[in-house]
């Protein structure tokens, strides 16, 4: 009986925590003034479109900020990710580490990075990380630094066996923004998801969302941490199914 009571207590705590997280996430969505929407045609599609929306302070309604821009996503399309709120996708594949899927869901856009020093990137309002040869994105699920961008030179005892060097020899990470997928660092749920520059309009990614440099720069100039920006990324039909429930921007 005591064991059953403990199990019920643990279950009740877990359900209460989940309910609190959902409420907190929806509250953050409701106070946001900037939403980036990325839509694909289905879960396997590797191409999509991105639109930016601002919330009208007078009416509370979303207004389109401009025309759609093309993007590419994961080589294997999209997978159900771990985001700001729980979005109940029916029959969707689950996003996992190394699966070449970009995460679907709703995620904070928390910070930016690039090859330029901070003094040359003052036009970016988000917290900005100037990349160096020692900055790595940790994708080892067993590491305490899983999902984080860290400076190896400042870690006394690096515990990861897998990571991505952020200062690349190409221009893909010349500018970028962090998509807060799996912020709770659930082992194996996927890590280090970004907006970044694409190789070309036909080259999908290992799990990020990529676009032309001019479009990414325009987006980074606009994103404002004071407006609590977030990304809503998913197939079009799934977006339409949850748009009213989550008060997301209406599609034209």
What this model shows, in words?
The protein is α/β, with parallel strands linked by helices. 19% of the residues lie in helices and 28% in strands. The strands form two sheets. Strands 1, 2, 3, 4, 5, 6, 7, 11, 12, 13 and 14 form an eleven-stranded mixed beta sheet that branches. A hairpin with a 6-residue loop joins strand 2 and strand 3 (62-64).
Could you give a quick summary of the protein structure above?
The chain contains three helices and 14 strands.
* Biggest pleated sheet: 11 strands, mixed
Q: What is the CA-CA span between the terminal residues?
A: 57 Å
Shape: globular
Strand-residue proportion: 25-35%
Low-confidence runs? 13-24
Query: What number of domains?
Result: 2
Mean pLDDT: 91
The secondary-structure class comes to alpha/beta
Tally of helical segments: 3
Strand and helix order: HEEEEEEEEEEEEEHEH
The Rg value, from CA coordinates, equals 19 Å
User: How many strand segments?
Assistant: 14
Percentage of helical residues?
10-25%
């Amino acid at each position: 009986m005591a064991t059953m009571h403990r199990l019920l207590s643990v279950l009740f705590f877990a359900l209460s925590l989940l309910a609190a997280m959902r409420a907190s996430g929806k509250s953050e969505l409701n106070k946001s003034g900037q939403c980036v929407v990325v839509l694909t045609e289905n879960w396997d599609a590797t191409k999509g479109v991105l639109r930016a929306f601002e919330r009208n302070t007078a009416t509370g309604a979303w207004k389109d900020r401009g025309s759609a821009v093309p993007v590419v996503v994961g080589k294997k399309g999209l997978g159900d990710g771990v985001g700001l709120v729980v979005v109940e996708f029916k029959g969707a594949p689950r996003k996992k580490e190394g699966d070449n899927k970009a995460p679907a869901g709703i995620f904070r856009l928390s910070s930016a990075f690039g090859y330029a020093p901070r003094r040359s990137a003052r036009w970016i309002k988000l917290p900005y990380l100037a990349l160096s040869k020692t900055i790595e994105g940790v994708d080892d699920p067993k590491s305490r630094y899983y999902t984080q961008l860290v400076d190896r030179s400042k870690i006394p005892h690096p515990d990861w066996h897998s990571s991505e060097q952020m200062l690349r020899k190409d221009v893909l990470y010349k500018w970028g923004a962090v998509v807060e997928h799996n912020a709770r660092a659930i082992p194996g749920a996927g890590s280090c998801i970004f907006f970044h520059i694409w190789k070309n309009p036909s080259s999908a990614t290992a799990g990020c969302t990529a676009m032309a440099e001019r479009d990414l720069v325009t987006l980074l100039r606009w994103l404002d941490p004071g407006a609590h920006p977030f990304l809503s990324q998913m197939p079009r039909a799934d977006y339409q199914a949850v748009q009213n429930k989550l008060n997301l921007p209406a599609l034209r």
